[in-house]
Amino acid sequence: MAIRLGMDAKLYYKVGGVGGSGSWEELVNVKDVTLNLETGEADVTTRGNAGWRATVATLKEGSIEFEMVWDTGDAGFTAIKNAYFNNAKIGFAIMDGDITGSGSQGLQADFSITNFSRKEALEEALTVSVTAKPTYSTTAPQWVTVT
């Protein structure tokens, strides 16, 4: 078993989406990152289930939540802010290691920024809470494993 620590995970972004020009850039100005993966459900219970409810998975859902320091000089911060205010897609790769490291894996998709909320704690640096969800794109979300 290969145990991975959260501090070794990486969040990458690409302006213009997964198919955009340029390379993946590591987003280092982030605190705790949460990758939420869920699936919708359909009830397929029949009398043949001997009194047990039966469920099958339907559409997958995903989102990313993280906090960043409010740093207007940071290119990653600016890319996310611009994606929010311009309603533009942005590519994210949420990896458990380096995007070029053998065995690293994670979700890669085009996202829409749905939350960009600034926190102004009295004795802390300004931060922004970000939520991103997969968006309409010719590139479907996919789970990738670097080989």
**Structural category:** mainly beta
Radius of gyration: 18 Å
* CATH structural architecture: Roll
Q: What order do the SSEs take from the amino end to the carboxyl end, as H and E?
A: EEEEHEEEE
Mean pLDDT across every amino acid position:
95
Q: Number of helical segments?
A: 1
Fraction in beta strands:
over 45%
The domain count comes to: 1
Q: Identify the overall geometry.
A: globular
CATH class assignment: Mainly Beta
Number of strands: 8
In helices, the fraction of residues equals under 10%
Your description of this structure?
The protein is mainly beta. Helices cover 7% and strands 46% of the residues. The protein has 1 helix and 8 strands. Strands 1, 2, 3, 4, 5, 6, 7 and 8 form an 8-stranded antiparallel sheet that branches. β6 (105-119) and β7 form a beta hairpin. The protein is globular, with a radius of gyration of 18 Å. The two termini are 17 Å apart.
Any key phrases for this structure?
8 strands; 147 residues; mainly beta
Short description:
With 147 residues, this protein is mainly beta. It has one helix at residues 75-85; strands at 10-15, 25-26, 33-43, 55-69, 90-95, 105-119, 127-134, 142-145. 7% of the residues lie in helices and 46% in strands.
